[in-house]
Amino acid sequence: MGFNPLRRKWQKFVAAFLLLISSILVIGAMILNNYLWPILTNKIKDIVSKSSDGLYKVSFGEAEFHMVRGTIVIYNINLTPDTLKYHQLKVAHLAPNNLVQLHVKRLVISQIHPFKLYFEHKLEIGLIEFYEPSLNASYELNQKKDSVSNDKRTTWQKIEKKLKSISIGRILLGDIKFKYQDYSGNVVAVRELKEVNLSAYNLLIDSTTQYDASRFLYCKNIIAEVNNYRGKTPNNLYNYNINYIRLSTQQSQLNINGITLNPTNSNNFFTKSKADRFDLRVDSVQVNGFNYLDFYKYRIINTPKLTVNNGSLHVYANPNKPNEGKDKTKTFPAIGLQNLHSDILIDTFQVLNFNVLYNEYNKKSDKTGGVNFSNTNVIITNLTTNKTALAKNNFCKAEISSYFMGMGKMAARLNFNLTSELNEFSYSGKLENMPLKVINTATIPLGLVKINSGTLKQFNFDIKADQNGSRGQVGLLYNNLQVVLLKTDTVLNKLKRKPLATVFANHYFVKHNNPDVENGRPRVAHVVYKRTNDIPFFKSMWRTLFMGIKPCVGFDEKKEEEVKAINKEQLALKEERKIKKERRIKRREEKRKKREQENSQKYIEPADGEVINN
Which residues pair with 190 in a beta bridge? Predict the structure, then answer.
């Protein structure tokens, strides 16, 4: 007798019930596909069109409904702008600055409530996942503030006749292919990203959230993440890499980790460029209270605090940099800010634990020298180009602390008048307690001067300046300064001592102590420096300070004139010796030629058969 699973009544009942449920699911799926899906797509299309004032339209491919899993899978979704509408808005000065185009290969909607949509007019979705999204965005400055539309209704007010609310638990977009075109400059800047993730949480559009300022685009939080952002600068001289970028709208915080900027080819850099070379490394950047919406719309950088943590900057001066006599006034910080052509308002900009190294090659010594500033901390307040902020406070202040050559404690203050037509600024500070030998890494290759001994007690300065020049006071207190003057030995390719000049300098020019006697009155320099237009900002600062350092060590104007006179005399003697040497060589050459001529006349070759008797 064969096995019959439907022999009993309850078995038949269960089988009939399962068949009924299956039929309901199949019929339900057919109803959703053929009836509710067109309603849903039409509602979505209508919502997109109304909420964007007709600028965007959306289209869908095929859809699959899975009743048991409660999901909908939609293929080939396209969000595209209406170019005709965009141009109409542009003519009316109502076009947005950003335009986007989105393509999604597959969209999975989970935890949906289709009957709530149909019967209660509420669109409720638990999770939306985008697969293989491709996003193209462009930026063009069409307006500097939000346009005033005739329709002042909120998004919810625009859709309330169609939907009472829209609620989405999570929206996930992973591995977005992102292309961004920026038309704000003279040349279109194109950037492409591949490892972009976007997550949005608790999107709710209804009567209670239409004015909720704590939400961004009606979402409680949006998190954008970018991994391994890398590329080349527009001039192809540098490679840049950023390990990780994260933006959270709920925290209003932007975090950037692992920034590097390195030359594409270090060995050939100076053959391709006349600019200085940079190597930059930054561990992290944190922007608090970051107003992303203002940045997205109008490129406004508005933040109460921007912090750069741990890093290094290595600068190599270009040995082939030509002295073109160009106006370098644009290197002043206030002008540099203005030339960014951006609306910037940073209340506090701080750099923590940074190392700065500067190297320069001296053709005369055929050596490279440099200075470094370790554990550098900088706090800048009121860094702004915003006109409203400048009307309230037009001064930008910077406080700097560092260790010069890793030993001397340095503190400085700078104050910039950001609205001054003459680019007025001031700077003051001091450097304390370090052995002067540590700066031999700079003085030997760059100045051909070796410091044998000496201790710096304090170097202080207080300068007021503008683009035309500077004036102020410089003081340098030290003990037991002894120097050695050097010259190049081209045969052995090294530097060697100039004995007579060294003795002369230490006994006649260099003051070994300041003050000369303990508890005496120190020498202080009052400097007046006139800047020419071809001198850049930092070079004008250094020349001002160096002008004050020279008289403090005994090399005042009188001694400088004496040295010039001695050098002039030595050059004259050197030139005279050169002329005498050339004359001696010429006389020897003339004598040699005369002897050769006389010797040639003593012997004449005889003709055939001729005998010559001497």
Answer: 181
- Nearest-angstrom CA–CA distance, 489 and 448: 12
Whether the per-residue pLDDT at 378 is higher than 90: the answer is yes
Contact between 282 and 308 (Cβ < 8 Å)? yes
Distances from the Cα of 474 to the Cα of 273, 355, 453, 543, angstroms: 36, 26, 22, 12
pLDDT at position 504 over 80: no
Q: What percent of the chain has pLDDT over 70?
A: 85
In sequence order, the 6+-apart residues with CB closer than 8 A to the CB of 64 are: 72, 73, 74
417 neighbors 424 (Cβ within 8 angstroms): yes
pLDDT tens column, 267-308: 888 888 888 899 999 999 999 998 887 887 778 888 999 999
Cα–Cα distance for residue pair 353/312, rounded to 1 Å: 9
Nearest to 114 by CA among 154, 84, 70, 178: 70
Beta bridge partners of residue 133, listed in sequence order: 104
What's the pLDDT band for 160 if we cut at 50, 70, 90?
confident
Secondary structure (3-state) at 322:
coil
Q: Are strands 277-288 and 300-316 parallel, antiparallel or unpaired?
A: antiparallel
Q: Which residues of 79-112 are buried (b: 16+ CB within 10 A; e: fewer)?
A: bebeeebbeebeeeebbbbebeebebebbbbbeb
Compute the CA torsion angle 387, 388, 394, 396 (nearest 10 deg).
-90
* Residue 304, token pair as written in the block: 């109460």
- This prediction's pTM: 0.77
Can you tell me which residue has the tokens 């040497």? 581
> Pairing state of beta strands 343-362 and 300-316?
parallel
Does residue 401 contact residue 411 with C-beta atoms inside 8 Å? yes
Give the separation between CA 397 and CA 392, rounded to whole angstroms: 15
CA distance 291 to 299: 10
In angstroms, the CA 436 to CA 453 distance is: 7
Q: Give the three-state DSSP class for 119.
A: helix
Q: In DSSP terms, which residues pair with 463 in a beta bridge? A: 427, 472
CA distances (Å), origin 68, targets 24, 34, 50, 124, 125 = 11, 18, 33, 18, 16
Cβ–Cβ < 8 Å for 38, 53: no
How many CB atoms lie under 10 A from the CB of residue 348? Answer: 15
Q: Which of 42-56, 368-382, 492-506 shows the highest mean pLDDT? A: 368-382
Q: Which sign does the torsion angle of CA 260, 261, 265, 270 carry?
A: negative
Is the peptide bond prior to 515 cis by the omega test (within 30 degrees of 0)? yes
Query: Could you say which DSSP state residue 32 is in?
Result: I
Dist. CA 251–CA 290, nearest whole Å: 9
Phi, psi of 420 (to 5 degrees): -75, 135
